[in-house]
């Protein structure tokens, strides 16, 4: 009997190893083929299966150094920052500091004065699922004014003016992607903890997980990738200023896989919070939303995902909690079409 058990354990080990090898080779083949067709676009990919991490990367950090991109190379994860912010909100809920169905009125910093039509209407969950109905920052106009650093002139006074001048929520309860919503969530977190957003995210996510290459302030590091706009021109990393909770973070595949491990571990504070963010807070015929997380389901799988775009880089993170796998894809060019094609190829070919 003991011999049979040992044999079974050995077979299972070989089977898992074989699956891991196949899993790795298939994804690497997809990424390599993409790079051959688009050698101007650098790419770094991390994937996790049953807590085992794998990495692949192609391209150069920039045209000057000739250094190869690897799992430690720094990219802009842009709006993927929002799932970190929503995780912090969910952690605050777990700590009984706030409830998702609380109205935002009493949690906003001084200076914000909601119009009577807006009072006791917008909930925390509305901000986090992009259905608050609040007006947003005009990114298109800001990019026209300063394509390298469009958020330079956006400060708290800008936000206060936008919110205080709002007299009606024209599309409350309907999905409309919102930068200002996540900026307000960050400010609410600052009021709850009496700390800066930077201090909060470091204390609750970055430091506990030892994400040493996840940056919030100084981005002038040697392993930083050069960003490129859709036409191939060089693009600076964004300084998000007051809108940091909506897109600030710079990171790499190694650290983001560490984050995914925590997300998929139900025993961690981050994992428990992530489960709350995965609940449905908005749904129509076109989309289903958790807290900052898109939910895509078919008859076999439920995938949680979030993409990110700056003016010079594109990224996406997606995972399947039930099957215990996750993927992070980082590109050093703003190219949402390529990102989507890679997502589709990896999912349909390997993970489905």
Descriptive terms for the model:
single chain, 352 residues, alpha+beta, Beta-lactamase, six-stranded antiparallel beta sheet, two-stranded antiparallel ribbon, 10 helices, 12 strands, 38% helix, 15% strand, globular
Textual characterization of the structure:
The protein is built from 10 helices and 12 strands. It has 352 residues and is an alpha+beta fold. It has a single domain (26-351), classed as 3-Layer(aba) Sandwich (Beta-lactamase). It has a 6-stranded antiparallel β-sheet with strand order 2-1-12-11-10-9, with helices on both faces. A hairpin with a 4-residue loop joins strand 7 and strand 8. Helix 2 (81-94) crosses helix 9 and helix 8 packs across helix 9. Pfam families: Beta-lactamase.
Write the layout of secondary structure elements.
Blueprint: H1 2-37, E1 43-49, E2 52-58, E3 75-76, H2 81-94, H3 124-128, H4 139-145, H5 156-164, H6 179-193, H7 197-206, E4 227-228, E5 234-235, E6 250-251, H8 253-264, H9 269-277, E7 282-283, E8 288-289, E9 294-297, E10 302-309, E11 314-320, E12 325-331, H10 336-351
Antiparallel strand pairs: 1-2, 1-12, 3-6, 4-5, 7-8, 9-10, 10-11, 11-12
Pfam families: Beta-lactamase (PF00144)
Signal peptide: 1-20
InterPro entries: Beta-lactam-related, Beta-lactam/transpept-like, Beta-lactamase-like_AB/R
